[in-house]
Structure formats: C-alpha cells, structure tokens
Amino acid sequence: MVKIRDRDYSLMIDIDGTLCEQKSGWGERLGDSTEIDAVPLPYAKRALERLIRHFRIVIFSTRKKEIGERWLQKHEIPYDDYLEKPLNFLIIDDRCLQFEGDWTKTIKEIGRFKAWHKKDRPILDP
After folding, report:
1. Is 39 part of a structural domain of the chain?
2. Is residue 3 part of a domain?
3. Average pLDDT for residues 19-43, to the nearest whole number?
4. pTM over 0.85
C-alpha cells in the first residue's frame, strides 16, 4: 500500500467530529470537559487499525490528554501518540484532508493524496 517505508510518516487525527460525533458547539473549551460522551463513528476504529500499519497515528485534539486517552482506550482505538492542540478556528496546511464523516471515503482519499506542490508524487499506491 505504501511506497515510502512504512511508518516513516504520521497521520494527525482529531477526536471530536473525526473519530466520534461532535457533541459540543464550536468555541466551547472541549479540553475542560471531564469525559467524552460519544461513541466512535462507523468504521473509525477499523480505519485506524488499518492506517497504523503504515503510519504513526498521532491524536491531535483540544481534549486534555488524559481524557482523550481514556476514551481511546475504552473504545480500543489504536494510536501511537497524543498531542493537545490549542482551540482553533481552522488549520491551514499543505498536507491535510477535511474529514466529511465517512471513514471509508477518507481511507480512499488518503490513498490518492498528493500535496499541491507534489502532484506528480503520490504517497500511496492507488
């Protein structure tokens, strides 16, 4: 699946709105909550089980690390590392996908992904 050496690269993945549904409104300080009251989205666990074979999975969330890790462990979702990010409006990067609620579609998009400046060099085989 991967042209590059396996697990050389990381995938940074959010929790709320990506691994589970977004329960709080935007702008609420999610990191101050004591629990994540949501179940994983369909195929989220299966997608990460597949992706972790090829990439380092880094959870990148505004949730406090201990809260996020407790939720990930409860639902047996695999990951390698956890980073707390500041509350943000938007992330602008040359290597990002907007998650649209469908992990099956997202896996396909990862497989076809090319940064705008490397359109001739895909990361994954189709």
Report:
1. yes
2. no
3. 72
4. no
In Å, what is the CA distance from 60 to each residue of 3, 16, 31, 83, 87?
A: 25, 10, 12, 5, 11
Tell me which residue has tokens 């060099």: 121
Pairing state between β 56-61 and 81-84? parallel
Sequential DSSP letters for 72-121: HHHTT---SEEEE----S----SS-----S-HHHHHHHHHH---GGGTTS
Q: Which of 42, 40, 9, 19 is nearest to 110 (CA)?
A: 9
**Is 20 a residue whose pLDDT tops 70?**
yes
Q: State the residue range of the domain holding 39.
A: 10-118
User: How far is residue 101's CA from residue 105's CA, in Å, rounded to a whole number?
Assistant: 9
- At 71-117, the pLDDT tens digits run 999 999 999 999 999 988 899 999 999 999 999 999 999 988 888 88
CATH number of the domain where residue 90 is located: 3.40.50.1000
Q: Alpha-carbon distance 2 to 15, whole Å?
A: 25
**Domains held by the chain: number:** 1
